[in-house]
Amino acid sequence: MRDVIEGRVWVLGRDVDTDQIISGKWLTVIDPEELKKHVFEIALPEFAANARPGDIVVADENFGSGSSREHAPQALKAIGVGAILADSFARIMYRNAINLGLPAIEARGVRALFEKGDPARVEMRAGKITNVRTGRSIPFPPIPHHLLDLLEAGGLVETVRKRLIAEGKAAPA
Fewer C-beta neighbours within 10 Å, C or N terminus of the chain? Predict the structure, then answer.
C-alpha cells in the first residue's frame, strides 16, 4: 500500500450491494482475469472496459451490502482499483477489502466531494481525501495500525505468509 493514493474517480450512489459489484452468476469463477471483466456490469456498465489501474471508486452510504462474498473486493482488486472511498460501508465488505489488501476508507461527505472522472488524492496516514480538480478536501478517521499493517503487507494471507516465513515455519515462495 502506498501512503498516497492518486487516481481517477468513478462515482456510485448509495446501497451498492455485492450483486451490483459482481453478479451472483459469476460466483463460480475464481480466475481474477475473468472476474474483472464483470465488475459493475449492471451498476456501471462502462467500468470494466474503461477502468485503469489506480482508479478510485467513490460511493455514498452502505457500500457493499448484501452477501459476505469475497468476490466483490477480489474483482475490484483484480481490475486494479487503488482504493474504495465511501460515506459508509457494510461491515463485511469493509473487512473483506482490507483482508485482501484493498484500501477501504470511510469518510462522511466523500461522495459529495467528487464527480465522475475527478482526480482524487488520498493521504492514508494524514487521513485526508482531496479532489485535485476543485482543491476541496475532507478528513477521515485514522485507520487502526493493525489494519494499516494488513494493507501494507498486501492483505491477511500475505501477512500470515510473511509471519510464517519469519518464524521458520514456511519456505519463501
Answer: C
